[in-house]
Amino acid sequence: MLGGSNSDYGLGFYMSEQLSTAQFYANLRGKFGQNGGPGIVRVDISSQHWKRLVLLGAIDTSPVSRLVGQTQAFVPIYLIDLFNSLVTRFSLVD
Predict the structure, then answer these.
(1) Are the C-beta atoms of residues 83 and 73 closer than 8 Å to each other?
(2) Interacting residues of 24 by C-beta distance below 8 A, sequence separation 6+
């Protein structure tokens, strides 16, 4: 999900390992087909590549505001091109 100024970390790509969190935000942001959604994408990236992104400013497991017990990861907009080049695979989740 691309977050905006009201999101926890601002503009960038938000991810979650919890399917329920991904479904919640996909439905929220993609309601009635807005923003091309709803949809959930699986992202496969090696831990070595992910650690590199974290060193450059990506955020690993962090609590989601207003969703107790749920976590998120975040890639700031300035790292999106590098993130896309390091991801092994994007696939649609049914």
Answers:
(1) no
(2) 67
- With b for 16 or more beta-carbon neighbours within 10 A and e for fewer, the 18-31 pattern comes to eeebbebbbeebbe
Query: Model's pTM, two decimal places?
Result: 0.79
Contact 74, 58 (CB under 8 A): yes
For the chain, the domains span 2-93
Q: Which helix (H) or strand (E) holds 92?
A: strand 89-93
92: pLDDT strictly greater than 60: yes
Q: Any idea how long the chain is?
A: 94
